[in-house]
Design a protein that fits this description.
With 57 residues, this protein is of the alpha+beta class. The protein is built from 1 helix and 3 strands. It has one domain. The relative contact order is 0.18.
Length: 57
């Protein structure tokens, strides 16, 4: 599955977030590092949602 991500340049590097997944964000010194980090963040986000959904069932 693909998700839209948005980048913002900061003094420290880049902040990146996924508008479709509230609260899912990351950062990196370069755009490439930020992109790799948000991929990990998205995976963790989705795994957490799946676990929480399973617990509620």
């Amino acid at each position: 599955m693909r998700y839209l991500v948005k980048f913002q340049k900061t003094e420290e590097g880049y902040t990146v977030w996924c508008p479709g997944l509230p609260g899912c964000w990351s950062q990196g010194e370069t755009e490439t590092e930020a992109l790799e980090n948000i991929k990990d963040a998205i995976q963790c986000y989705l795994e957490t949602i799946k676990e929480l959904t399973t617990e509620l069932s």
